[in-house]
Amino acid sequence: MKKILALLSFALVFAFSSCIEQNYVTWQGAVVEFQDAVVRTPVAGTANPAYPRITVANTVGSINLQVNLVAAQRTSDETITYKVVPEGTTAVAGTDFAVSGSLVIPANSSFGTLTMNIPNTGAIGGAVDVLLELEGNAQIPASQNYKRVQIRITRPNPPAGS
């Protein structure tokens, strides 16, 4: 009798636990975000949204920043725009850096690359900053939390006695 009750109990538990319908909510939106904003710690005291700072030397030539498409991949190229935010920028466009203002996420891809050219301004000392902000396009807005990244360009000090 104990074996029958044990088997019946097991059968009831199995029957009621195996047929539970799961209704998972699936997000259907789309946004773009900087990979560095997702994985790096934001700079303390930055405005909302907080953003990370990436430090590079003025001798680097260029840097590439990965931009993520958080959505289903598109069947055609998506052009994403971005801007330089004056409030977080001390560098001079054309002298300290050059950017185009847009990037392309290729068809059937989840990633695009923003390339910033950094000319060698020589040994003049100090550092300058460039704050970049994704804007997106008509169909794909920028993520409110991960749309900004600041690039700090360091310049070596001039030789002593110059």
Brief synopsis:
It comes from Mariniradius sediminis. The protein is mainly β.
How would you sum up this structure, described in words?
- The protein has 162 residues and is mainly β.
- It is built from two helices and eight strands.
- The mean pLDDT is 92.
- It has a single domain, classed as CalX-beta domain (Immunoglobulin-like).
Number of helices: 2
* Major β-sheet profile: 5 strands, mixed
Q: State mean pLDDT (0 to 100 scale).
A: 92
3D shape: elongated
* Spans of at least 5 consecutive residues with low confidence: none
Query: Helix- and strand-based class?
Result: mainly beta
Name the CATH architecture: Sandwich
**End-to-end span in angstroms?**
99 Å
Overall helicity: 10-25%
State the name of the first-level CATH class. Answer: Mainly Beta
Tell me how many strands there are.
8
Signal peptide: 1-20
Organism: Mariniradius sediminis
Protein name: DUF4843 domain-containing protein
Keywords: Signal
Key attributes of the depicted protein:
single chain, 162 residues, mainly beta, Immunoglobulin-like, three-stranded antiparallel sheet, 2 helices, 14% helix, elongated
Topology:
Blueprint: H1 2-18, E1 31-34, H2 35-39, E2 53-57, E3 61-70, E4 78-84, E5 102-105, E6 111-118, E7 127-136, E8 148-154
Protein name: DUF4843 domain-containing protein
Keywords: Signal
InterPro entries: CalX-like_sf
